[in-house]
What we know:
The structure holds 2 protein chains of 2 kinds.
Chain A: H1 2-16, H2 18-26, E1 29-30, H3 40-59, H4 68-78, H5 83-110, H6 119-141, H7 146-160, H8 166-172, H9 181-213, E2 226-227, H10 228-253, H11 278-284, H12 292-313, H13 325-347, H14 353-361, H15 371-382, H16 411-419, H17 421-424, H18 437-449, H19 455-458, H20 463-474, E3 482-483, E4 486-487, H21 497-500, H22 503-511, H23 513-516, H24 529-541
Antiparallel strand pairs in A: 1-2, 3-4
Chain B: H1 2-6, H2 9-44, E1 56-60, E2 70-80, E3 83-95, E4 101-104, E5 116-118, E6 123-125, E7 132-133, E8 139-141, E9 150-156, E10 159-166
Antiparallel strand pairs in B: 1-10, 2-3, 3-4, 5-6, 6-7, 7-8, 9-10
Amino acid sequence: MREIKRRVFAWFDHRTGLESGIRNFLYEEIPGSSGWHQVLGSVAIFLFLVQAFTGILLAFNYAPTPGDAYNSLKYIITEVTGGRLIHGLHHWGASMMIVVVVFHMTQVFLFGAYKKPREATWMVGVVSLLLTLAYGLTGYLLPWDNRAYWGTVVTTQIAGQVPLLGSYLQRFLGTDGSIGVVTFARFYALHVLILPPLTTFLIIFHVHLVRKHGVAPTPGDTGPTKKFFPEQMLKDVIAIFTAFVILYLMALFVAVPLERLADPTDLTYVPRPDWYFLFLFQTLKFFKGSLEPIGSVLLPSLGVLALFLTPFVDREKVMRLTQRTTALGVVALAAIGWGALTLAALRTTPAAPEQQASNLQQAADWNQFSPQEVAGLGYYRQEKCQACHNLTDGPPKVGPNLATAREHKNAAWMIKHFKNPNQVVPGSNMPPILLSDAKLNALAAFLLKLSPENADATASVPDDLVHGAQLYEAQGCGNCHMVNGAGAKLGPPLNGLSQRRTQQWVQQHFANPAALSPGSIMPPSQFSPADMQAIVNYLFSLPAA
Amino acid sequence: MEKISEATPGDQAQSRRGFGYAVIYALGSLIGAALAIPAALYLLLPPKTRKQQPWVEAGDLSQLQPGAPQEMTFRRIHADGWKIYSEKGTAWVVKKADGKILAFSPVCTHLGCAYHWDADKSDFLCPCHGSVFALDGTVLSGPAPRPLDRFEIKVENARLWLGPVHQAGETSS
């Protein structure tokens, strides 16, 4: 058996050279001083492979066009088995990649491992760092939520500030004017077609250079060398495994932010870049007006240039770490500067918008609605809007969920849309709503009031109360009375009526106001018994202001 | 005591090396499994089914005459991955002599062509390969392998509601 195995391997090795190649790779001679400080490069390569793997899996269920991108990502997260995990690995893996790459670079910098003859290795590494950041920038747009959209607006504006090349750069990114389908296609192509092969090539080149010059020994290490396998490889694998466990736990337990569908008309959104770009974002604040390109373009470029030229600036002989006071100082200053800028940016970052919205709307239970809005709910039910629209989560329907659809939220647009849906939304199957303008106004008012927070409650409003609100509107009660802050103050506000009067009193008052309230200018109203009960029930449901 | 003194430094290095191998393989396999298993589930398991619209209203039955099938069209909601469509659906609705209602899926059970009602011969004829079905959906002639597929139905106030499609003879679940 053993003999057969040996012969099979020998045959393959003779024909392909694979086995001796791998052997050659594993038994590379490395300095005796190699150790834990040199595992980060391997971790970075491992993370790149994880990103490629999870990225390909995501692409199997992802539609790379605006709108659909968001829906398909939501589908991955909520409906596909393991989708949330795969997406989490890809999202947090990107952040982890940045951390590991920067630490790798810091280690190489501190140990002076970029010095002759390893200058090219260092420079290829700097380019790889830039590519890693480019993944971050292009990948940021792909979820197509508000965060993605507005973050990319800022990025592309900055690209436009590059002297001379700005407008060309913007055109290359497909953002001549605004962010749209072309921008999206360009970002997607860069993210999945251009960057991965480029990175693969650079990694191979980088590793080739490391092997060509040998792993850099710790200064003063002139002792005997050792083999990469298994001792150093074991350290690498343990480091990789540790990183993987951390990443896996994050993917499982830290939710990836996915905000609302990108809304270019949402002028309240405060965009923030991903955490690793926050320091640049904060730097930008120091430069106002025409000086802005200094912060947005010049300083970052100088930073990259400084990184590039490091091996040529520092040409001294290799020294022990403890003697490299300048290098230690540079790293310490960079860390403090980065930390301070990031902290400052975080302190000015508003709370997550979703949270803000819910605080704002918490009080918006249905009995806080104005009579017009409650009446609108009645028309919503009467016109059977729920046949095609959801207000809360439920089986999917043809039309959009009206509590979460925030586009076009103004009454004029809605009324135009109600009257002629197909003209306002090309391709819409929605039939026109044939109601009077007053009723359409009420319907629009109701829809504008809707939010994901109060949508549940609207289902529980009893029909007779809704009918009561419609009567209230039809009678024009709001011309004199105020309910929930809507209406006039000519007559008494009606909130808290149930605490002041009995139902019987109110009914008699409707029939003959002057008899019960001498001097009242309120006209008498004739209601059918059912209508009378409905409007009284409605008025008695109102909260006490 | 004797045994220990026999152990040479070479043996120790050997066993340390063996331990190193074992850890490398173990951790490597753990990582591989932690990635491969979710990936396989992700690609191979069907996505969570959304709550589909269980019943759709197809139309009025009061005009339906026994022995004269009627093609009823309706709109239904169809979820395709992350997209939701409203699509037109049709059903051939038959009232049998005893008043029993049947609703057939509008495609031939042979290769999925749309068949039609031949009023002269009183049977369903598929134009593609000449399958012929009787009023109750059974195969009269042609290559069709089984009777016409049926919608699950319910009737409320003379309105017909359609449920999922089953092959004839299948017990409705």
